[in-house]
UniProtKB/TrEMBL annotation:
Protein name: Lipoprotein
Alphabetically ordered keywords of this record: Signal
PROSITE patterns: PROKAR_LIPOPROTEIN (PS51257)
Keyword Nucleotide-binding: no
Presence of the UniProt keyword Signal in the record: yes
Region (Disordered) residue spans: 31-58, 162-199
Biased composition (Polar residues): 168-181
Range of residues in the leader sequence: 1-27
Length: 199
């Protein structure tokens, strides 16, 4: 009688054991596939914050600290430099910021938004290069200069002084050259979404 009861219990337990056995295997498989996917994707950016208005820190670490640092640096630097050239440097060269120029007011509105956007993207790029001590030593200081000077350059431009813009453009060229020499050539993105600029 005891043997029959034991057999009945085993027969009833088999489906339950099969279900339990399938559960962890499928979740382990999905976790492995998701970790595999995350290793090939660049992580998302941090949210916008009031720290975007603070001076850019150009100190460098002794060792690498962040994953995907070079990829993220190239993304943010490309956006920052592309926005500067599209919305500030090229309109300046075309005379759009001059008194009486057609589209002057709109150019200044977009230029102001672009300055905030550049400052934010340069801050993110600066945080990214800190994960690579060699790259950081080469371009952290120029990045900090760009981030700290771009808004002042726009303010000067409103008074007719373009020297600030010329200085930022020169520093961007220097940063791009240094990045390229250190294995991180920046490709400018001249179609940035300025609506992501913090208020």
């Amino acid at each position: 009688m005891g043997i029959r009861v034991a057999r009945a219990v085993v027969v009833l337990m088999l489906p339950l054991l099969a279900l339990v056995g399938c559960g962890p295997a499928s979740s382990t498989g999905s976790s492995a596939s998701s970790s595999g996917a995350s290793s090939s994707a660049v992580p998302s950016d941090p949210p916008q914050s009031s720290s975007d208005a603070a001076p850019v820190d150009s100190t460098c670490p002794a060792t690498a600290t962040t994953s995907f640092a070079k990829s993220k640096f190239l993304l943010h630097a490309g956006l920052a430099f592309g926005a500067f050239h599209r919305y500030l440097w090229k309109p300046y060269q075309a005379g759009t910021f001059g008194k009486g120029a057609s589209g002057r007011v709109g150019a200044f509105i977009k230029g102001g938004l672009a300055a905030l956007f550049v400052k934010r993207e340069v801050r993110l790029a600066s945080e990214d290069v800190k994960a690579d001590p060699t790259l950081c030593k080469a371009i952290a200081a120029p990045l900090a200069s760009i981030g700290n000077d771009v808004q002042g350059a726009v303010d000067k431009l409103k008074g007719g002084d373009a020297s600030g813009l010329s200085g930022v453009d020169s520093t961007i060229t220097s940063a791009e050259n240094s990045a390229s020499r250190n294995g991180a050539p920046v490709v400018e993105n001249d179609n940035p979404d300025l609506s992501s600029t913090p208020n």
